[in-house]
Design goal:
- By secondary structure, the chain is of the alpha/beta class.
- The protein contains 17 helices and 16 strands.
- The strands form three sheets. An eight-stranded mixed β-sheet has the order 8-9-7-10-6-11-12-13, with helices on both faces.
- The longest helix is centred in the C-terminal third of the chain and has 52 residues.
- The chain starts with a strand and ends with a strand.
Length: 529
């Protein structure tokens, strides 16, 4: 269950308590909290406000609110209104139902009461909204068909079709979405989505005239995202086996079983692609902002007109891979193609698309410029109310401040698991890299100190042998020690010992930055006349 709740309670303490109760339900978000009847009407009547439920005091403003409920259901027939009352008698409940109220709760409802009641209302809302989608110019019981076709190869038609279907299926409306690969020779969706389904559209061709729901269900690939996919044939030369009549029967069956059918028609107008364009409720011609693609787009539109395959809808041009640095901008492209174009353009975002394309993992796109542009395209196509722009800010009351803080904490807690995992992995890798670098640095320093000590011990031994065997006032060992110390760097310690046959041994202790135990170097020097 998910949705946004407007709380309308006059008493400040009860209002805050109700807001806190709703905040305990992870799927719900408090859209606002008001205390005056007039504010309820203003919020509900505002088309920019996305409201799913209204939780309201039955005596808001000191009088019954049933007339207000009738007004709200007129403005928003799918609004889930729940009244809170001290006296939920059968007579009051009946009168509330007649006024369009979907539920009645006691004065201090528990988290369980609110969750159970709103969950029931959400099921009713989903059925109402799906019926509304089925009736959007398509006839009752008919799903919506969106067809994307490329002006030429390589303009990104398959990528856009895939992400548009994923967006619609995951937008929170509960829409049953099917993605159809009618790019029969290239089979781009199979590669982008890394699909290895055994069944394809060819399995439906022999039984096209007598299709059943079971036939369709068995032929579709069920992806773990919830998206159902009708794959193109395994081999490109089988494209001609999908005839126009078969395609018409197949697409007719799909639109009776799904709320939305997104079709990748490729860039070549085959019989199947022509039928898809003829059945389309929305026909999208994808072009890129360069002269060859624009010319191909104009020719594609002329071909569609000559074939008379877009009878019920005018094709619209969608510009893909747009960039402010491009020499050709969408405004020029609109004049070249001479067709109506979408207001939104899909930006060049290969930085984010490259990783998911190489890994065939489109679900990991994240909040990128490409994803935001696809959401804007979904809003322009009116794929769902949950793709609408964010609602305007509610009046800044004390309750709203509390709501904002609660929602902010929830968003932080609800950060995607993958994002938290990647952040933790990045931290571990950084710490590990720093440790390895420090170990390597200390090792190099230790090796340098060992080399300096080796050379210095040799020089100290020779100096001790020469000076110790000469005549002098000081004892031999003392003269040798002083001579050895004068020939080595000051940070090294040297100890000189006198041995037989005019031989002196100089022992230098190596400074240690890495604990290695006793590390000394001894060299001997002998004086000969």
């Amino acid at each position: 269950m998910r949705g946004r709740v407007l709380v309308a309670i006059e008493d400040e303490e009860r209002r805050a308590r109700t807001v806190a109760t709703i905040a305990e339900i992870a799927e719900l978000e408090v859209a606002g909290a008001v205390e005056v009847r007039g504010d309820v009407s203003l919020v509900v009547d505002d088309p920019t406000q996305e409201i799913d439920f209204v939780l309201m005091d039955a005596n808001l403003g000191g009088s019954s609110v049933l007339s207000l409920c009738r007004e709200m259901t007129t403005m928003r027939p799918d609004l889930g209104i729940v009244l809170i009352t001290d006296d939920p008698t059968p007579e009051f409940t009946l009168a509330s139902m007649e006024a369009g109220v979907r539920g009645v709760l006691p004065r201090t409802p528990s988290v369980e009461d609110v969750h159970a009641r709103l969950a029931t209302i959400e099921d009713w809302q989903r059925r109402v909204r799906n019926l509304g989608y089925a009736a959007m110019g398509q006839g009752e019981g008919q799903g919506r068909v969106v067809v994307l076709t490329g002006a030429k190869g390589g303009v990104g038609t398959s990528t856009l079709a895939l992400h548009l279907a994923l967006l619609a299926g995951r937008a929170g409306l509960g829409l049953r979405t099917c993605l159809v690969d009618f790019d029969l020779q290239q089979r781009g969706l199979r590669h982008l989505f890394d699909l290895h389904g055994r069944r394809t559209v060819l399995d439906l061709v022999p039984v096209a005239e007598n299709l059943t729901a079971r036939h369709v269900d068995e032929a579709l690939f069920a992806h773990h995202s919830g998206l159902r996919v009708l794959l193109a044939p395994h081999h490109g030369e089988q494209a001609d086996d999908v005839t126009g009549d078969a395609a018409r029967h197949i697409l007719g069956a799909l639109r009776t079983q799904f709320d939305l059918v997104v079709i990748d028609a490729g860039s070549v107008v085959t019989e199947a692609a022509a039928v898809a364009m003829d059945l389309a409720d929305d026909l999208v011609v994808v072009v890129t902002p360069d002269v060859p693609a624009l010319r191909a787009g104009r020719e594609k539109l002329e071909l569609i007109a000559r074939l008379d395959v877009a009878k019920t809808v005018d094709a619209k041009v969608l510009f893909n891979r747009t960039s402010p640095r491009s020499e050709v901008q969408p405004d020029l492209g609109r004049r070249v193609t001479g067709a109506e174009a979408f207001k939104v353009g899909i930006p060049e975002d290969w930085k984010h698309l490259e990783e998911i394309a190489n890994g065939a993992a489109p679900l990991e796109l994240g909040n990128s410029p490409f994803r935001r542009a696809m959401s804007a395209l979904g809003r322009e196509l009116q794929l769902g109310r949950h793709l609408a722009p964010p609602p305007a800010a509610a009046p800044r009351t004390e309750a709203d401040v509390v709501v904002a803080e609660i929602n902010s904490r929830r968003r932080k807690r609800g950060r995607p698991r993958r994002e938290r995992r990647e952040a933790g992995q990045t931290t571990i890798e950084t710490v590990f890299g720093v440790v390895v670098a420090m170990v390597l640095l200390l090792t190099m320093i230790q090796i340098g100190l060992y080399a300096v000590a080796t050379v210095s011990s040799r020089r100290a031994a020779d100096a001790a042998a020469v000076t110790g065997n000469r005549e002098g006032l000081l004892p031999r060992i003392q003269r040798a020690q002083e001579a050895a110390e004068s020939r080595i760097p000051g940070f090294l310690d040297v100890t000189v010992e006198e041995r037989a046959d005019n031989t002196f041994a100089a022992t230098v202790r190596v400074p240690q930055v890495i604990p290695l135990g006793d590390l000394s170097i001894t060299q001997t020097g002998r004086y000969t006349d």
